[in-house]
Design goal:
It is a single chain. The chain has about 400 residues and is an alpha/beta fold. The protein has 14 helices and 10 strands. The strands form 3 sheets. The protein has a 5-stranded parallel sheet with strand order 2-1-3-4-5, sandwiched between helices. Strands 6-10-7 form a 3-stranded antiparallel sheet, with no helix packed on it. The protein has a two-stranded antiparallel ribbon with strand order 8-9. Helix 6 packs antiparallel against helix 7. The longest helix is centred in the middle third of the chain and has 43 residues. It is elongated and about 80 Å long. The relative contact order is 0.07.
């Protein structure tokens, strides 16, 4: 059975109680029933999510507090209500104070009182989900805006960030880490602090060209700039911390920071290795040469466990079609095969960047100003290519 998003699950080891609830409310609510805690837990599958769970306190094998605590861990947005006898009220109040339970219903309870509590629980569920959706949409919009800004103001940095993310993704997957989104987002936004650095200095830095003291100072500052840009965005505080510390040497960290359960520590270690590994590859080093150079500082600059994982990094190679098109003929999903520069040589969009609607509009605007030539070299994989 497919359960709607506002289904209420009732759990009680007394069938008569469940039958009474079914008779009273079958027209008002979408309901499911379980006669013990184990059956209730099994109902929380990937296909079945419940808005509200109402559980009896005293049940054999698994009591109400244990059941609702497990449901809280498995489905934190589900609103939890406890059905209790008078002798259970102290225990129920403790559970409420601990934050595990939204309300409790004392036996016996009139249909009107129970309906009032169930309505309040459903309202709470709707509020929780409305806030979550608002946050997710706002966060996604913010991230998209930031990456668009990076791609337009520092295209070479955006291109490097995508390469770093590919490496981070593979390392995180091999290590079996949690918070995958956090590590990958830190990689994608790791170069956001480069928006304040002149493009020529960035090009020299990424090409490993010599920098003077003032130029090196700008480069040294970009992790802190990125941190400052991200730290006040809700739910990006850990991402900001990873970026802030990702240029620090492994040997300089405290014992606590080397704990693999420390998301910031392990995340910054991974990002440090991935950033320098990507840089070496972009400078023309082979995979073996790049790993060999990083190994020379294994345990000092770099976390040795992360260096060991580089042997398993294998960027996918996909057969592609390369074409030269006018700017009006390019569309989102294509990938640039050459830098796009103005007629005066200023870099606008870096080789390797994927065309987005924003990038296409950006290039069209420059074309209207006669700043660029009306042709770009792009590619798609054969599976994606749309011949005209």
């Amino acid at each position: 059975m497919t359960v709607t998003k506002e289904t209420i699950l009732f759990v009680d080891d007394e069938p008569n109680v469940l039958n009474g609830i079914r008779r009273q409310f079958y027209r008002k609510y979408d309901m499911e029933f379980a006669v013990n805690g184990h059956d209730a837990i099994s109902l929380f599958s990937s296909q079945q999510k419940f808005a509200v769970v109402v559980s009896d306190m005293r049940m054999p094998e698994m009591d109400g507090i244990e059941l609702l605590s497990r449901i809280k861990a498995q489905s934190p947005n589900t609103v939890r209500v406890m059905l209790t006898g008078n002798s259970d009220q102290y225990t129920a109040m403790q559970a409420i104070n601990e934050g595990s339970i939204f309300r409790f219903i004392t036996k016996p309870c009139s249909p009107d009182n129970m309906a009032s509590i169930l309505d309040a629980a459903l309202d709470q569920y709707r509020l929780i989900n409305a806030e979550r959706e608002l946050l997710e949409n706002t966060l996604n919009g913010t991230i998209n805006a930031l990456t668009d800004i990076l791609s337009l103001t520092a295209p070479i940095a955006f291109s490097r960030a995508k390469e770093i993310k590919n490496c981070v993704h593979q390392i995180v997957k091999r290590l079996g880490l949690s918070n995958v989104w956090c590590h990958e987002l830190a990689a994608m936004l790791s170069q956001i602090g480069c928006v304040l650095i002149p493009s020529k200095i960035l090009e020299n830095f990424y090409a490993s060209m010599p920098l003077d003291k003032s130029e090196q100072a700008m480069i040294d500052q970009y992790p802190k700039t990125g941190y400052d840009l991200l730290k006040h965005i809700p739910h990006l505080d850990i991402v900001a911390e990873i970026i802030l510390h990702h240029r620090e040497d492994y040997s300089s960290k405290t014992t606590k920071s080397k704990d693999p359960s420390d998301t910031v520590s392990i995340g910054s270690d991974i990002l440090h290795v991935a950033t320098d590994y990507s840089a070496l590859l972009s400078q023309g080093n082979s995979n073996a040469q790049s790993i060999g150079k990083l190994k020379q500082e294994k345990g000092t600059a770099y976390n040795p466990h992360i260096i060991d994982e580089l042997h398993y990094i294998n960027p996918p190679q996909m057969e592609k079609i390369v074409k030269t098109l006018t700017i009006s003929d390019i569309y989102p999903g294509m990938k640039l095969e050459e830098d796009v520069r103005t007629k005066k040589g200023v870099l606008l969009v870096k080789y390797g960047q994927t065309i987005t609607p924003t990038v296409r509009s950006f290039l069209l605007n420059h074309l209207k100003q006669n700043d660029i030539e009306d042709q770009v070299v792009v590619s798609l994989t054969k599976a994606e290519f749309k011949p005209k």
